[in-house]
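Hi support team,

I submitted a single chain yesterday and got back a structure, but I'm not sure I'm reading the token output correctly. Could someone confirm the output below corresponds to the sequence I sent? I've pasted both exactly as they appear in my results page.

Thanks,
R.
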Amino acid sequence: MPDPGKRDHGVAAAIALYYDLDVSDEYEDVEMYLALAAASDGPILELACGSGRICVPLAAAGHRVTGVDLDPAMLDRAQSRWAAHDRGAGGGSLDLIEADMTTVALTERFGLVILAFNGMFVLSDRSAQEQAMQTIATHLAPSGRAVIDVWLPAPDDLVLYDGRLVNDWVRENPETGNQVAKMTSARYSPATGMATLDTFFDEWRQTETPHRTHRRDELNFVTAGELLALVERSGLEAQIVAGDYDMTQLTTHSDRLVLVARRAGGL
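Hi R., thanks for writing in. Yes, this is the structure output for that exact sequence:
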């Protein structure tokens, strides 16, 4: 993933806004995390928390949550989302920290640690992914649980990663009233298991010439077997290996892996 600190502030803020627009209809996993949080003891840590799509609802439900992300523009949106939330009766809290999930070292230990929604993919290589898993293991309380969620692309999915330009959607930007179109172009390398994803957001009002914002991500995919091996090497063990947010058992036809883990030999 590009270092957000090297982006122009205005571009970074626009990308964060468009990210929220892109995931505005993504909510199925939030209910799962709320249920896991309700069954957990102690505070919650979300790595790669982004603009607060998950950590804000968790805090609003009354939990003490810490969110970590490398992108200050994303964290600004998370803070604004939390500030706008009615917190009168909830009793929860949200602490947002700008840091790299592969190196962050907090003194607190957590009853639930979350790396959601393909956050594992934005790490540059397998070593970085292993470091992130070690971060998760280090920050777990003795009886805590970790949850990692990744997409499992099928060969048919990756056939489309040949550089073609795909029109994903056209939506209204609620902050400007303008129309925004999202287009993507991806190239997958079977030799490395990685894909380069270029995302283009064009925003315009009526007859204006669209203004284009470009984001490039290097995605480092993991298979189910690779993720399980990373978990094991970090000193964790899988409790649940599910294929969807309803915690249905993983099969060869599953397009997601939702992994719930604990310290090896834990309660």
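A quick pointer for reading it: The chain has two domains: 4-152+222-263, 155-220. Let us know if anything else looks off.

Best,
Support desk
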